[in-house]
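note to self — DONT lose this again. spent like an hour looking for the file last time. sequence + predicted structure for the chain T wanted, 450 res
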Amino acid sequence: MSMSVQGAIAANRFGLGAKPGEIEAASVNPRTWLKQQLQAIEFNDGLASSSELEIALAEYQRDRKRAKKMADVKNPSVQFGKSAQKMSIAVAKRAIDSNNSLNWRLLDFFSNHFSVSSLGRAMVALAPTLEREAIAPNLDQRFEQMLLSVVRHPAMLIYLNNERSFGPNSLAGKRGRGLNENLAREILELHTLGVNAGYGQGDVVELAKALSGWSVAKPIKEKATGFVFREQGHEPGTRTLLGKRYKQRAGPLGERQAEAMLRDLANHPATAQHLCFKLARHFVADEPSADLQAKLTDAWLKSQGNIRRVMEALIDADESWQTPPQKFKTPREFVISTARGVALPVFNGKKIWSGLATLGQQPFKSGSPAGYSDVGSDWRGASALMTRVEWSASIANQAKFLASTMSEQAIMRQCLGDTVSERTAQSVLRAESREQALTLLLMSPEFLRR
């Protein structure tokens, strides 16, 4: 395989699509080019933090209770919705502009792995802050650090109702407040071990009891925001998870019981297998080879779940560089790779948002803790493909300026390098117009897959 083909694979399979000049840069040393992109992501864009949003939500609830009628209360729902949209668009635009798009693909992967949905006023406001505050800073750290940050984040605690989960024998539980198993179940089934890892309902209950009292502060009453451990809501006693006993620590240290469980779950061999399968499926193929999964799992276990080391193993694996491309792009990947490859000024925030919504992958709208599907068959139905054709045509119709700046052949090479087939090249070059040529390029097998 030539270095130029590897450069195209690096930019389009590992990254989020080739920007102008990127395939040439990657072709010098594709593996090194990718490894240099592995780093944490910081957000310094001045958009609202979860703490600021928690305060705004609390103030709304306070004013609502005080008002004689709802007409007297300024409803912030529209404001929260706009804030969330701004955050999601900011993430997408940075992914489009980035020279380190592998890192942004990895952020998308873990944001979907720890999926939260905008259901209800609080989650509309808080959902986009989870990836910015708990996932992005930990992309180059051990998985246990990311898991602990995610589980303590108010978006996850509220989404899975753990802020109101109290042990039946705790002080709060004896007053009639009950235990909620949602967070514990999803941690075991989705976030760590996987559904077929051999745990039982008893393990779900034990983890839920250990997580009881893991809650969110009340900004006005407690003058605090974010995670808080409520000792009066924590189930007392020793817990047993997967056959291992975890003693109860006294007082505020009671949260250490669940923390120890989460660390052990993060480092469990079943978690390594589950996450490495998902990573291999996301980056390489819907049904990744056993050899590739074994290489990633070995790297995970040797590094104690160091995400950077696992990604380096993925990059080094020959199985990751197979041709032809196996992965059908999700709507998000399609929109972002189009924006990166064609580099049109029409990709403002509104166009990005409407594209994601039109194609069926609006941020934080999966409606399930399992997130959006990462399997091609769920995205390439006849209706979905027709929607892509129509969206691609709408983009092409706004690209008339390309007629005087770039040839069709140059655009193809910029996006796909030497991976363009003769059939695709001929169909694009023989198109009746520049608009039709760009539509055919975007809907070509080489562009639809990575």
